Amino acid sequence: MVEEARYIYSIARTGKREHLGEIGIEKKAVYTLPHKDIAAVVHSCEPKPYDTKNRTQAEEWVFEHSYVIDQATKRFGSILPFSFDVILRGDDSQIEAWLCRNYEHLHEELKGVEGKAEYTIQIYYNYANLQSKVLDGNPELKDLQNQIEKESKGKAYLLSKKLDQRLKGLVSAEEARLANKYLPRIHRQVDKLIIDGKRSWIPEDCRDMKLLASYSCLVREDKVERLGVILDEINSQEGFRVRFTGPWAPFSFVKLGDLA
Amino acid sequence: MKPERESSLVEVLDRLLDKGAILNADIIISVAGVPLIGLSLRAMLASMETMLEYGVMEAWDKSSREWYARQETKLPLDDREEILFKAFGYLWRDEGIIGAWVPGVWNITSRRVLLWQRSPAKVAFEIPLQNLYLQEINASLQEKQELELIFPDGSAKIRLSESEEFKEALARATRVMVAVEV
Question: Using CB atoms and an 8 Å cut-off, which of residues 178-197 of chain A contact chain B?
Fold first, then answer.
């Protein structure tokens, strides 16, 4: 007997078995597998993970997965998106039994994201700009800078090292102050907020800038506009640029680790 | 401003590989009891970015971490010393005025707590289990809790995605020490 398995894209709110078309990974037929009023969005596959040594192939799979998530969201509203390459062992009836066992939990999670979507906010700033602002606002450092111009080469070198270090510290303190200033205002408009780690990737139009803060937020539909107004305010400040993307499926806010 | 549906490849990978639901259920495809969620594929896609800097490791599920741990150069252990707990995490290191999170694998052994770095392979930090205390640093908005290890002549700020498990393991390990001394 050949063992069956299902590749799972998401859990959606629907009680109907529907075919979504051949939109899955490698054109697999994607369908909903319901239990009561919730359903797993799946395709039928072999009981082994997708794996390849070919990068382009792997990226393609990931984009195909992402596409199914988007289509399911369009059709069913907010869903619980699954990570790439999660494969469940069993046939339709076994997966349905699994849905049945975890119905309460899944239902609760779905309720938690209803009418909401994930948005990412990245605030970039111009380092040189902030640095000169800090310098202008600090008479002591200004004096030090003037002194450097008058000193001999050796002494000037040592003093400029000192200036650099003081300035670096003050700029990073200013950076923290700014991030803390905006955070509560953003937080008030969102349901949940996660502070994302700093990352090495910077979008093309922000190449000369530094990342001040990066947030993933779960936002109610009717609050997106107000959030946009706050971000506009930050964006319009000299030397600042805000990147606001979404809506995405709530990838950062789904915790299903303890399902049975 | 209006949100844009614009996403770079890096961001798509970030969302689909590091975020999204993962299961610990029995029903998941597994090999020898370890859930196998396209591990090598993830490793390959993630390796194009500087993985640790980019934070990929943080969100990896437990099985990936175990897989990754197996790829490591072996950690030098003393005689009869055994590893009780292992998880990816960070150590806060002050570098003059600024500081940085140093990534690595936190190990609790029967003798010490240490941060192991893979390349170059070295013990970046270690402290014996005796007289070691753990304190939680409250950061309400931070997803990952920071902890402070307090030892007789100082302290160290650390961060792990499995901070609860770390706390438990440390509590167990320090009890083990007491038992050995008795």
Answer: 183, 187, 193-197
Report the distance separating Cα A27 and Cα A127, nearest Å: 46
Based on the domain organization, do A52 and A162 belong to the same domain?
no
pLDDT by residue, tens only, chain A of 260 residues: 568 889 999 999 999 999 999 999 999 999 999 999 999 999 999 887 787 777 778 888 888 999 999 999 999 999 999 888 888 888 899 899 989 988 999 999 999 999 999 999 999 999 889 999 998 988 988 888 888 888 888 888 888 888 888 888 888 888 888 888 888 899 999 999 988 876 656 777 787 888 888 899 999 999 999 999 999 999 998 889 999 999 999 998 987 766 66
Query: Does residue A260 sit within a domain?
Result: no
User: 3-state SS of B108-155?
Assistant: EECCEEEEEECCCCEEEEEEECCCCEEEEECCCCCCCCEEEEEECCEE
CA separation for the pair B155, B146 (Å, rounded): 13
ipTM topping 0.90: no
**Spans of all domains in chain B:** 1-64, 72-182
CA distance A9 to A24: 9
Domain extent at residue A84? 5-114
Residues of chain B with Cβ-Cβ distance to A252 below 8 Å are 19
Distance CA B126, CA B105 (A): 12
Closest partner residue to B22 among A58, A86, A242, by Cβ?
Answer: A86
Distance (Å, whole) CA A236 – CA B163: 39
- Determine the CATH number of domain B72-182: 2.30.29.30
- The shares of helix, strand and coil residues in chain A, as percent rounded to the nearest 5, are 50, 25, 25
Instruction: Spell out which residues of chain A touch residue B6, defining contact as CB-CB under 8 Å.
Output: 245
- What are the structure tokens assigned to A38, written together? 């919730």
Interface test with A, best of B4, B17, B29, B36 (most A CBs within 10 A): B29
Q: Give the span between the Cα atoms of A71 and A245, in whole angstroms.
A: 18
Structural domain count, chain A: 2
Q: Which of A35, A66, A83, A221 to mutate to test the interface with B (most CBs of B within 10 A)?
A: A83
Report pTM. 0.65
